[in-house]
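Record type: monomer structure entry
Structure origin: computed from sequence
Chain ID: A
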Amino acid sequence: MTNPAKNTICLWYDGTALDAANFYAETFPDSAVTAVHRAPGDYPDGKQGDILTVEFTVMGIPCVGLNGGPTFKHSEAFSFQISTDDQAETDRLWNAIVDNGGEESMCGWCKDKWGLSWQISPRVLLDAVTNADPAIAKRAFEAMMQMKKIDIAAIEAAVQGK
């Protein structure tokens, strides 16, 4: 590894780690592919010389994509939670994931075409659902529960009781 961090997220892919890492690097700020390593020998789902691991960062978080084969799939038990500052950033990231073969889910969640889950969460939403006033938090939560991609204006209206 080029610069091992004390904690690195390892994500399992079926031969598509480099494609996924390149997409993340192009889509998210402070993201990059930092190294590609080829298998030094044959392994159960690949041959010597195949891309085995890809080192990359997603918004500064170190990750390794492992081309481990079809045995294990991503699930909603793991997701990247991306805090956005405004509707334009929320829309850009959500649409980049969904329009690139991904799929929408509820409450700000979507899944990329490799099966990895993402929470595209405006800061306004996170602040609202954790508000010290339980009535405000409940209204914001109830509004969020009706959404796929988060609509900041609708969350702000819920906070205001509208």
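Annotation 1: The longest strand covers residues 51-58.
Annotation 2: The helical segments are 17-27, 87-99, 123-129, 134-144, 152-159.
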